[in-house]
Automatic annotation (TrEMBL), chains A, B:
It comes from Gynuella sunshinyii YC6258. Belongs to the RecR family. SUPFAM superfamilies: Recombination protein RecR (SSF111304). PANTHER family: RECOMBINATION PROTEIN RECR (PTHR30446:SF0). The gene is recR. InterPro entries: DNA_Rcmb_RecR (IPR000093), Rcmb_RecR (IPR023627), Rcmb_RecR_Znf (IPR015967), TOPRIM_dom (IPR006171), TOPRIM_RecR (IPR034137). This is Recombination protein RecR. A zinc finger (C4-type) spans 58-73. Residues 81-176 form the Toprim domain. GO terms for biological process: DNA recombination; DNA repair. Gene3D superfamilies: 3.40.1360.10, RecR Domain 1 (1.10.8.420).
């Protein structure tokens, strides 16, 4: 016999869209919501709808935001000719909190990962290259994480821009290999940013 | 600065109703849905709504189902005077698949856990005791899992029914201590059910 009723089974399947959630976790989640937190489950349903309809990408830097252009890109005090490429919003925040960067960003929302079907288009590189053509960009800081995928992504971008004559830099060594950028302490990150090098 | 836009932040918080999902997991889930699977996220929102509105408890055995009385309780070939108490639908399925049990069930949907605020009412024991008063129940099989919480729950039920003169049994030894009932092989469970003992 089936262990769960048809509608419960459908919820279990629907929960598996969440990353890292397998069958057993989805079953535990469905039962928990149905048994112990129906209110929270309805709030989640509502919030999924309103966040999905309200949030899109900043048309310039790809940061998830409610406006067409995010608060960083629309800040007139920032240098639009200096772009720092990061993998995630968390990494952007980490750099912002050093307080020394005055350019703008480009957020990849991931990194190249051919196995998962994530190519240049999926991380928005065509938009980055368009911007480099259109604006007079002076420096591109490749601040992807020092992981295999982050390095490969930086390498790909550098190769594509080889003939353009733009100054391309990477954060200085000092960041531990294999670490996530947003877990690095502020002092190290501050130092790494200041001693960035042309590559 | 805030790392995520206000609506993204709200989704991250809403996702934390899911058991086992902390801040980091919720952030990863929100970004994944917004970046890579908006369709799946909308399906999840819809399914949460329809499952929550369509699924309630069987009024007799508490199994989650779409009808007032589930397909097991409404099966006329089953012995309504024999009730097997289990913790979860998965455990019910495990017993069903032995093919030798012809009574009905009572599904606790958990076990006593005072630390988590789960007392007798939360696992529906008042409904079980009502049914034992109303129907002429001949045997109550306490098939809770052989874990600390499962044993404590069985102990509580047995104590409450001490003076009622009902035959109360537990599954025979043979189930490994500390194991989840639905992970025990069919042969062992078959044997344990057949050699159940009055307690
Ligand atoms: Zn922006
Ligand atoms: Zn039932």
């Amino acid at each position: 016999m089936a262990t769960y009723s048809p509608l419960t089974e459908k919820l279990i399947q629907a929960l598996r869209v969440l990353p890292g959630v397998g069958l057993k976790s989805a079953q535990r989640m469905a039962l928990h919501l149905l048994e112990r937190d129906r209110e929270g489950a309805l709030r989640l349903a509502d919030q999924l709808r309103s966040t999905l309809s309200g949030v899109s990408h900043c048309q310039q830097c790809r940061l998830l935001c409610e406006a067409d252009i995010c608060h960083i890109c629309s800040d007139e005090l920032r240098n639009q000719r200096q772009i720092c490429v990061v993998e995630t919003p968390a990494n952007l925040s980490a750099i912002e909190s050093t307080g020394i960067y005055e350019g703008v960003y480009f957020v990849l929302m991931g990194h190249l990962s051919p196995i998962d079907g994530i190519g240049p288009e999926e991380i928005g590189l065509h938009l980055l290259f368009e911007q480099i053509e259109q604006r007079q960009v002076e420096e591109l800081i490749l601040a992807t994480s020092p992981t295999v995928e982050g390095e490969a992504t930086a390498h790909y971008i550098r190769q594509k821009l080889d003939a353009k004559g733009i100054k391309i830099t990477r954060l200085a060594h000092g960041i531990p290999m294999g670490a996530e950028l947003d877990q690095v302490d502020g002092h190290t990150l501050h130092h790494a940013l200041q001693s960035r090098k042309v590559v």
